[in-house]
Design brief:
This protein has 467 residues and is mainly β. The chain has one helix and 42 strands. The protein is rod-shaped.
């Protein structure tokens, strides 16, 4: 646009320079963009909107482009400094004027100014991911550079979910936490600009709509197991399964169950008790009780958590191996109560009693030891019964005087099937052998019947042994 100014002041014969940033003035039904420059007269002013040239325009001329009417007006703001104001009036709805990048370039016969850009921000959203994850916190900020009277967020039902009417130029839409059932929808940020429309007598309204997509992560639950108590047969042992919902915005609660080593659902019985499921807002707990623990309880138990979500059925598991220890056996040594004499046959009996919760086949390793040395080993096997203990015998045939002393029977119990069952600590019992010399026999000689002269007579010798 060639503009002739009738005065040639100080700036004559100089290249145009844009002295100030572009100034946008909002209005309705028209807004203005002002470009201030210095330099020689007969300048050409070129405005562009998002790369599209607006013009050429002479002072006072107008042009229709992209649904808007653009008109250029130039004035001298300082003759002494050769300063000019090039004002572009844009007659268009404010919502269509904003949201563009405008540039101004001033040119004369000596050259051109650098283009001066200005982004006119009407309304924008930022700072948050519009694809939200259930259970997390997310904030989407709506902001504007316009002078406004109020700013609101509304949902697709036209319900205001956040607002600020104090002229603040931004407003947060907060999801804390994101919920799959109520947040999966469209939201609109709406601002009311301060610029009374001369036709409608109302302030123009500008809005921007976003769509929130809520995603549910997989898996949405974690499963863990805590063990308490003693895993020794005959004691009490507890497994607590905890199913935790990672995504607190889900509306359904997780369920859970225990599976035994054969992958069957565990039920009450045989020393096992299933408690009631305990729930909180985000967790579910179920206790599996072994009271008392049996060796047959050994194996791998699985807690399975299930959650029904919008994406389908989610499952997660946690395994816990139960390894039962055989308790220390009770060992006693029986010594005959009669006097023990040298030269006689004597048998010591080792009685090995196991806890009645050892209900699996076992092997009992027995070691006899006497005064100062190990005497013999013995191996027994079977299933323990409290009424019929395992027994090992130590026999002296015959008993000698140097056999006197303390005799210890030590027994260790180990499982036939070594998986999920561990051997016991050794148990022992002691018996004392007191050896006595065999006393001299008692001899008695006497007649048998009365004796008469001239008759036959018999004498009887009776020998009584202490054995």
């Amino acid at each position: 646009v060639m503009i002739n100014i009738g005065v040639y002041p100080i700036g004559f014969n100089s290249v145009p320079t844009i002295t100030n940033p572009l100034v946008f003035t909002q209005g309705s039904p028209s807004s203005t963009l002002t470009c201030t420059s210095t330099g020689s007269v007969a300048t050409t002013v070129t405005f562009m909107r998002d790369g599209t040239t607006v013009g050429p325009l002479r002072d006072g001329e107008l042009i229709e482009l992209e649904g808007a009417i653009f008109q250029l007006t130039q004035t001298v703001t300082s003759r002494s400094l050769s300063t000019y104001a090039s004002v572009l009036t844009i007659s268009q709805d404010l919502s269509d004027v904003v949201g563009h990048i405008y540039t101004c370039t001033v040119t004369n016969v000596l050259g051109s100014s650098n283009p001066e850009p200005l982004e006119v921000i009407g309304i924008q959203t930022m700072g948050g991911d519009q694809s939200l994850t259930v259970g997390e916190m997310n904030i989407i900020t709506c902001s504007t550079s316009l002078d406004i009277s109020d700013i609101v967020w509304i949902d697709e039902m036209d319900t205001i979910v956040a607002s600020n009417s104090e002229g603040v130029q931004q407003l947060d839409l907060v999801f804390n936490p994101v919920n799959d059932s109520i947040h999966n929808r469209m939201y609109t940020c709406r601002i009311t600009a301060v610029a009374v429309d001369q036709v409608t007598n109302k302030n123009p309204v500008i809005s921007k709509t976003i769509t929130i997509q809520v995603r549910v992560p997989r898996p949405a639950i974690t499963v863990s197991v805590i063990s308490e108590g003693s895993d020794t047969a005959g004691e009490s042992y507890f497994l607590t399964c905890i199913v935790m919902e990672e995504v607190v915005g889900l509306t359904n609660m997780p369920s859970l169950q225990w599976l035994d080593p054969s992958d069957q659902v565990v039920a009450d019985g045989e020393g096992i008790t299933i408690g009631q499921i305990q729930r909180t807002d985000t967790t579910a707990m179920l206790v599996l009780t072994f009271d008392p623990v049996r060796t047959s309880h050994g194996g791998e138990y699985t807690c399975q958590g299930t959650l029904e979500s919008p994406t389908g059925t989610l499952r997660n598991t946690s395994e816990q191996t139960v390894t039962v220890q055989i308790p220390q056996p009770t060992v006693t040594v029986d010594v005959p109560t009669d006097p023990l004499y040298t030269g006689t046959n004597v048998t010591l009996t080792c009685n090995i009693v196991l806890n009645d919760q050892v209900d699996s086949p076992v092997i009992v390793d027995v070691t006899w030891s006497g005064p100062g040395e190990e005497i013999t080993n013995d191996t027994l096997s079977g299933i323990a019964e409290s009424s019929s203990p395992f027994q090992s015998m130590l026999t002296f045939a015959p008993l000698n005087s140097d056999d006197a002393g303390d005799y210890t029977c030590e027994a260790t119990v180990r499982p036939v099937e070594v998986e999920f069952i561990t051997m016991s600590l050794p148990g022992s019992g002691t018996g004392t052998v007191i050896v006595q010399d065999l006393p001299a026999p008692q001899v008695e000689i006497g007649p048998e019947g009365p004796s008469t002269a001239g008759s036959e007579h018999t004498l009887i010798c009776r020998v009584t042994s202490a054995e």
